[in-house]
């Protein structure tokens, strides 16, 4: 089995507070893997460790075959990262943002021009290239963020709550794009607290207070726990946590 991401007992503590508590994750190449949890569950801390932006307190992990502690520079050349907060330049045009981020990823000349054209077509941004980024609706700004993160053809895309504050129709369209990227072989690691949208994942994990309480395909998890929806499953796991029962 070829894994794009793998962790063993990955832990991050801030003083006496443990944000991520001994998590074990194995994500296959080309998989859409959901990292579900309420705000403050440790999702963003985990994704920052996997991207090489934050050193773990203990445990280990690999991303694209590289060690998350010793080989962070190599990891950054193989991944794309889209943060939960819009990080592009609102006063630049769509095309200018794409050229800027392409340059940061080491693309230039004809290669960058061709890649911008390809991504603009893939994400439906072609007519918007001259538009000022800040004037776009939020859903289209998120498409642009995805385009920038994917310009250099990363093996793995880390998407940290990319559909926050996006309307339901735009969210569904965004997930269609995610699955198209997955079908092309890109591994997608996506954090979310929306219970409905993670039903689109191939597999998902549910984090509660820094620990993984359940992991598997949405269908298997619902069947295993006798729940009709992932939302019902999440509430059941939270109730078990609160009364001290094993998940």
Structure explained in plain terms:
With 247 residues, this protein is an alpha/beta fold. β1 (3-14) and β2 form a beta hairpin. The mean pLDDT is 91. The protein contains eight helices and ten strands. The radius of gyration is 18 Å and the shape is globular.
What is the gist of this entry?
This protein has 247 residues and is of the alpha/beta class.
Short descriptors:
4-stranded antiparallel β-sheet; 26% strand; 6-stranded mixed β-sheet; alpha/beta; single chain
List the helices and strands and how they pair.
Blueprint: E1 3-14, E2 17-28, E3 32-37, H1 43-50, E4 58-63, E5 66-67, H2 72-78, E6 79-82, H3 94-104, H4 109-123, H5 138-150, E7 156-160, H6 168-183, E8 187-192, E9 203-208, E10 211-216, H7 218-225, H8 230-242
Question: Could you report the average pLDDT, rounded to the nearest whole number?
Answer: 91
Q: How would you describe the shape?
A: globular
The ordered string of helix (H) and strand (E) elements is EEEHEEHEHHHEHEEEHH
Strand order of the largest sheet: 6-7-8-3-9-10
Distance between the termini: 28 Å
Q: State the helicity in percent bands.
A: 25-40%
Number of helices: 8
Largest sheet: 6 strands, mixed
Total beta strand runs: 10
The low-confidence runs, each spanning 5 or more residues with pLDDT under 50, are none
Task: Supply the helix-strand structural class.
Answer: alpha/beta
Evaluate the radius of gyration.
18 Å
What percent strand?
25-35%
């Amino acid at each position: 089995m070829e894994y794009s991401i793998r962790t063993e007992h990955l832990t991050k503590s801030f003083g006496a507070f443990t944000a991520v508590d001994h998590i074990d994750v194995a994500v296959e190449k080309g998989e859409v893997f959901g990292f579900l949890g309420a705000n403050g569950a440790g999702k963003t801390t985990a994704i920052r460790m996997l991207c090489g932006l934050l050193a773990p307190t203990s445990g280990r992990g690999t991303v694209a075959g590289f060690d998350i502690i010793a080989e962070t520079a190599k990891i950054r050349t193989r991944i794309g990262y889209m943060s939960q907060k819009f990080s592009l330049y609102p006063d630049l045009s769509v095309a200018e943002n794409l050229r800027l981020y392409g340059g940061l990823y080491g693309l230039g000349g004809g290669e960058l021009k061709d890649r911008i054209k390809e991504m603009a077509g893939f994400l439906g941004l072609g007519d918007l290239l001259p538009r000022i980024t800040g004037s776009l609706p939020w859903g289209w700004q998120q498409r642009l963020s995805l385009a920038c993160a994917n310009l250099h053809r990363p093996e793995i895309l880390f998407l940290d709550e990319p559909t926050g504050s996006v309307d339901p129709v735009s969210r569904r369209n965004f997930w269609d794009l995610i699955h198209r990227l997955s079908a092309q072989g890109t591994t997608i690691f996506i954090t979310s607290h929306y219970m409905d949208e993670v039903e689109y994942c191939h597999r998902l994990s549910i984090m509660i207070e820094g620990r993984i309480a359940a992991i598997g395909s949405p269908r298997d998890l619902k069947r295993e726990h006798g729940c009709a929806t992932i939302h019902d499953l999440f509430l059941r796991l939270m109730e078990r946590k609160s009364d001290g029962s094993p998940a």
